[in-house]
Amino acid sequence: MQVYNFWRSDEQRVPCCLKGRFFITAGRRPAGEAELNINAMSYTRLLYHIVFRTKHSKNTIPEAHAKELYAYIMKVIADKKSRLYRIGGTENHFHLLVDIHPAFAVSDVMQVLKEYSSKWLSGNPNFPQFEGWAVSFAAFTYNLNDKQKIINYIKNQKEHHKTVNFAEEYRQFLIDNGIDIDERYFLKD
Questions:
Q1: Which fold has domain 47-176?
Q2: For residues 80 and 114, is the Cβ–Cβ distance under 8 A?
Q3: Cα–Cα distance between 187 and 166 in angstroms, integer?
Q4: Cα–Cα distance measured from residue 101 to residue 27, given in angstroms and rounded to the nearest whole number
Q5: Would you list the domain boundaries of the chain?
Q6: For residue 96, how many other CB atoms are within 10 A of its CB?
Q7: What is the pLDDT confidence band of residue 40, given thresholds at 50, 70 and 90?
Q8: pTM for this structure?
Q9: How far is CA 41 from the centre of its chain?
Q10: Which end of the chain has fewer CB atoms at under 10 Å, N or C?
Q11: Which value, to the nearest 10 degrees, does the dihedral of the CA atoms of residues 176, 179, 180, 183 take?
């Protein structure tokens, strides 16, 4: 197996074999050897449809003030170098279509989003019934070709929930995405 030596600007040695395995070792880049820009070939589109709900699925987000919360969530998402394509929902749950920056795990983004928005909601007089977010959430990846379909689905939440309750919708999302449901934990806070 032939091994090639590359050097990064931080002067760490990065030997790389032909099979793509990388090892980082201490060392200085010798004069005249080219620098390897590891990020030069990183292209991502991490499109997630995320569903999360209020604690105990209580109707604690008044429709009249939901847009205030949407604006706040948009700012939190932007602060994570991510892009929110659509947000929508009802008084007890929300759907996001978001492109999450590759530096952040979806669980970390959701932890920050729930923590910051929970503090913001608790201090906002327009949301007096808000008690917190449920612990769990669901996140599903989609192809860019599905983007408009998901946007339309999120736009249609109010109409959709005239005939389907949140528990039925959530269960169907899990089933459609091949996720086994453990009834001991399903929608438990």
A1: Alpha-Beta Plaits (3.30.70)
A2: no
A3: 10
A4: 31
A5: 3-41, 47-176
A6: 28
A7: low
A8: 0.77
A9: 23
A10: N
A11: -80
